[in-house]
Amino acid sequence: MSGLPREVLKWIQSLDLTWQIKQAKWDLTNGYLIAEIFSWYFPQDIQMHSYNNGTSLESKQKNWSLLKLFIKRHDLDIPEELIEGTIHCKEGAAPALCENIYELLTNRKVKKQPSEFEIDFTDSAYQLQLPMHARSTASKAVKNNLRITETMADPNLILSAQKAQKIINDHIQHRNLERLENPDRFNVKPTLGEKCLRRPPPQPSQPTFDAESTQHTFTVDPSRKPGGEDNPLPVSREPSVQFKEIEVKQLDKSALYNMPIQGY
Fold first, then answer.
1. CA distances (Å), 19 to each of 32, 37, 56, 95, in order?
2. What distance in Å separates the CA atoms of residue 19 and residue 21, rounded to the nearest whole number?
3. pLDDT tens track of the chain, all 264 residues?
4. Of 171, 156, 138, 24, which is closest to residue 90 (Cα–Cα)?
5. Alpha carbon distance 121, 221 (integer Å)
6. What's the Cα-to-Cα distance from 201 to each of 163, 196, 197, 227, rounded to whole Å?
């Protein structure tokens, strides 16, 4: 009874079913025990002689078609994906269906433990727990997650191809994640950009001037002649070109307005 909470397990054992549920994934797939559980709460609506305790796909489809009519008639909130996952023995579908039925019939809530893996009715959670060399390949992932009963129940080739392609895409995504987490195992060589040292560009330093350091003192040797090779003349910073200011007498414009106009 792995995968079932303790309160759900005790509830199933109290119903005194035909046989004990050892592995919910395989024991609930044909729907016979599900119908027997409902018969304890709805004895007038569930007649056990109408259900076949077989393992063939035909027996599964017949039992679940009757159960779907019963669920629809009583307006029970059971997701279709849980039913389809239980029929095709998907990972985690049958325990989730038992928990859903337990909450509907007993009006109680199941105390679920927080899980780091999301239940998607695939074996991805199991594969992540295995070492890398033991994980399945792409073809094995399709075989594990795409049941033959799904193809037999719905022989649509396009739908089957879409399901297989989705499984392969998920497998490739997990494989790429493994390569990023363990590059040494897959002999992944770093790219040219990863090899280059990425340092921040140097910031231009602004020169700082100190008043004391900029003051220079010069001593002139009186024995040396100015202008020689040993004692050149100091370069003067005063401008060599001198400008003379010229005063210009401008005409008074007011006199122009007072002049008489010629011809009048």
1. 11, 12, 19, 17
2. 6
3. 457 888 999 999 999 898 888 888 899 999 999 999 999 999 999 999 999 998 898 999 999 999 999 999 999 999 999 999 999 988 889 999 999 999 999 999 887 765 544 567 888 888 888 888 888 999 999 988 888 888 888 888 888 899 899 999 999 998 888 888 888 888 888 787 777 766 777 777 665 555 555 555 545 555 555 555 555 555 555 556 677 788 877 766 666 556 555 544
4. 24
5. 100
6. 51, 14, 12, 49
Structure tokens at 157: 């080739």
Choose among 81, 100, 92: nearest CA to 34.
100
Q: Is 119 buried (19+), middle (13-18) or exposed (0-12) by CB count in 10 A?
A: middle
**d(Cα 86, Cα 55) in Å, to the nearest integer?**
13
